[in-house]
Design a protein that fits this description.
The protein contains four helices and no strands. The chain is mostly helical and 96 residues long.
């Protein structure tokens, strides 16, 4: 009987949740642009979308770090995590 590797399941859950968050933010801001009469470009340039997008990107990077098997994959996913964490901190700091 094979056992389930729960750490891998959790890691996959992180990147799936991150992509779902990004998709939900895109969907919401597309709807908001339609409702307010603004362009989608204006909505996506706003801090509310950018914070959610970068947060989702952080979750994707964490998830990919957890499932990386090759060193180059780990380096790239760690770079995504560090860059998105720094960007998220910068976005929260400038909007506060």
């Amino acid at each position: 009987m094979n056992m389930i590797d729960w750490l891998t399941v959790v890691a996959h859950g992180f990147w799936i949740a991150g992509l779902a968050l990004i998709l939900a933010a895109l969907s919401y801001h597309y709807w908001l642009a339609e409702q307010t009469g603004h362009s989608l470009r204006e909505q996506l340039a706003g801090p509310s979308f950018q914070r959610v997008f970068v947060g989702g990107l952080l979750l994707v990077g964490i998830g990919l770090s957890g499932v990386s098997r090759q060193p180059w994959q780990l380096v790239l996913s760690a770079a995504v995590v560090v860059a998105s964490a720094l960007m998220l901190a910068l976005l929260w700091r400038t909007s506060a």
